[in-house]
Amino acid sequence: MKLLVTNDDGINSVFFHELVHALKAAGHELSVVAPASEQSWTGASKTRQRPVKSAAVDRGFGCPTWITDGTPSDCVNIAVTSLLPTPVDGVISGINVGFNCTLGFIIASGTVNAAWEGALHGLPALAVSQDVSEETYDYLKDHGGQPDAALLASLRASAAHSARLASELLPATPPRSFTVHNVNFPIPCRADTPLRRTVPARLLVPGLFSPAADDGTHRLLWHKGEDLSPAEPLSDVSCLAQGWISHTVLDYRKLGV
Predict the structure, then answer these.
(1) In angstroms, rounded to a whole number, what is the distance separating the alpha carbons of residues 119 and 185?
(2) Which stretches of 173-235 are DSSP H helices?
(3) Is 140 within a domain?
(4) What is the chain's Cα-based Rg?
(5) Cβ(161)–Cβ(130) under 8 Å?
(6) How many percent of the chain have pLDDT more than 70?
């Protein structure tokens, strides 16, 4: 398949590089358009108040590669309409550092919404994310995004699963179907880790910002919130907790039904 590959953690993310390498190893023909810097939690936002710059770069992927100084949605929009020399068969976004589960975080995710931007252009779309612990997330921040050996092994398994799922899910998704496949990988992830169909967990996450400091600023605070999900059907969060790969089909045509 001809695929557009993007993410929200930026062009230098090791998680992103592993996805690109796995997709190439699976025989896909790639074009890469990714943010120049991290754009996490930007949702489906577009850059409106200034021009967005794109530039061709070489990151050793062996395929056409560009960076933009905009959001993940900007990347896909600009790629499809202005950068790609030929049309692509689908969009894959990730691998995100951390899960993109639950109603609230899916809507806020730059990774998922980059895939959604592909769906808005009529393309089959897949978003992939790697769950990590809070301790691991802090470790990555302190070590320039470089995973340790154990995480790298899981990441490569997740990347191989991503390449396989791209081959299976994207051709089976009709164009112009407004559908995004949202896949989250557990930690650890192995070649034999099973895949389960899930729905987004119903999580209340109030109070994500601290009270005002003396200078009037508020700081983002992370907490897991309150899970109100019923026992059935299986939620994405419960799936990961059981060590399985979560596959949620986000069919935006069903909103309000």
Answers:
(1) 22
(2) none
(3) yes
(4) 17
(5) no
(6) 99
- At residue 128's C-alpha, the angle toward residues 221 and 143, to 5°, is 55
* In contact, 76 and 6? CB cutoff 8 Å: yes
- Count CB-CB contacts under 10 A for residue 40: 17
The pLDDT tens digits for 35-78 are 999 999 999 999 999 999 999 999 999 999 999 999 999 999 99
What is the span of the domain harbouring residue 111? 2-199+230-254
Instruction: Return phi, psi of residue 97, to 5°.
Output: -85, 100
Any idea which residue has 């997709």 for tokens? Answer: 23
Question: How many structural domains does the chain have?
Answer: 1
Which of 3, 240, 16, 5 is closest to 140 using CA atoms?
16
pLDDT digits (tens, 9 = 90+) for 219-229: 998 877 899 99
| CATH code of the domain containing 75 | 3.40.1210.10
Dig out the tokens for 240 from the structure: 């990961």
